[in-house]
């Protein structure tokens, strides 16, 4: 799997909520495991593990049932939620490229028969995946329901760079991110939430930022550039809170 293949998957991926419950071939699962074992973290200082569950091992508040689930367990420290989104979005795009359906599940948890803690790591989030009777890919980007670039960015000259980021999935399509700065250093912020919305989306929107950051990483790689991250707090636009700074340089 190449970065270019993942990048191209951004423009076609769909979230799928209806699945064929037939299990995938064992080789398909093994290939996924191998790919996931080499996933790139946002923060290499955070321990994490992927685990794989079947349909009887998951409790979901939404009527979405799939034959397979990949779960991310993590240390609860620092930027672990952004790291989770960054890691699991690689799996999401891998599945899409390989013509497999997937869907982020923010309201699903392992059943009581599955440990919430594993090797000192806590369950964070999961993806449903499998085959589907529905079309897996979008015909073109006009099918995405997303904010316009000017609503999520003030970075001059960054339209081509941030278009793949604009298409990133988010909880209830909240798209809580904002990008400011310039083409050397981009500040990534998250929309401040009131108390009620913070209870609903506070955790998920941090995961969402991680998803967007992986799309940004792929977009930079596509342009022959690399990203380094700084998590030291800095100024942000009004109504937003700081998440990270992305320092951009040429390969």
Structure description:
The protein is of the alpha+beta class and 251 residues long. The chain is 31% helix and 26% strand. It folds into 2 domains: 3-130, NADH Oxidase (3-Layer(aba) Sandwich); 146-250, putative nitroreductase (tm1586), domain 2 (NADH Oxidase), CATH 3.40.109.30. The protein is built from 6 helices and 11 strands. A hairpin with a 2-residue loop joins strand 6 and strand 7. Helix 1 crosses helix 6. It starts with a helix and ends with a strand.
Q: Main sheet, how many strands, which sense, barrel?
A: 5 strands, antiparallel
End-to-end separation in angstroms reads 20 Å
Class of the largest domain in CATH?
A: Alpha Beta
CATH architectural designation of the largest domain? 3-Layer(aba) Sandwich
- Shape summary: globular
Uncertain segments are: none
CATH topology of the largest domain: NADH Oxidase
Q: Helical proportion? A: 25-40%
Please report the number of helical segments.
6
What percentage of the residues does DSSP assign to strands (E)?
25-35%
- Which whole number gives the mean pLDDT? 95
Count of β-strands: 11
Overall tally of domains: 2
CATH superfamily annotation of the largest domain: NADH Oxidase
- By secondary-structure content and strand pairing, the structural class works out as alpha+beta
Q: What's the Cα radius of gyration?
A: 17 Å
């Amino acid at each position: 799997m190449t970065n270019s293949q993942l990048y191209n998957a951004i423009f076609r991926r769909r979230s799928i909520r209806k699945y064929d419950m037939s299990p995938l071939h064992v080789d398909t699962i093994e290939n996924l495991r191998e790919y996931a074992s080499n996933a790139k973290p946002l923060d290499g200082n955070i321990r994490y593990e992927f685990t794989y569950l079947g349909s009887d091992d998951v409790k979901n508040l939404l009527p979405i049932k799939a034959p397979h689930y990949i779960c991310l367990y993590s240390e609860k420290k620092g930027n672990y939620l952004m790291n989770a989104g960054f890691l699991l979005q690689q799996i999401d795009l891998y599945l899409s490229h390989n013509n497999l359906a997937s869907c982020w599940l923010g309201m699903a948890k392992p059943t009581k028969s599955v440990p919430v803690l594993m090797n000192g790591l806590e369950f964070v989030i999961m993806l449903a995946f499998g085959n589907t009777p529905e079309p897996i890919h979008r015909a073109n980007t006009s099918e995405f329901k997303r904010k316009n670039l000017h609503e999520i960015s003030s970075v001059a000259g960054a339209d081509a760079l941030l278009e793949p980021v604009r298409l990133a999935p988010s909880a209830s399509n909240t798209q809580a991110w904002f990008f400011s700065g310039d083409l050397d250093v981009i500040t990534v912020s998250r929309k401040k939430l009131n108390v009620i919305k913070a209870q609903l989306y506070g955790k998920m929107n941090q995961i969402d930022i991680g998803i967007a950051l992986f799309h940004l990483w792929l977009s930079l790689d596509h342009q022959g550039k690399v990203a380094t991250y700084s998590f030291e707090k800095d100024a942000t636009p009004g109504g937003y809170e700081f998440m990270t700074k992305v320092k951009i340089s040429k390969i």
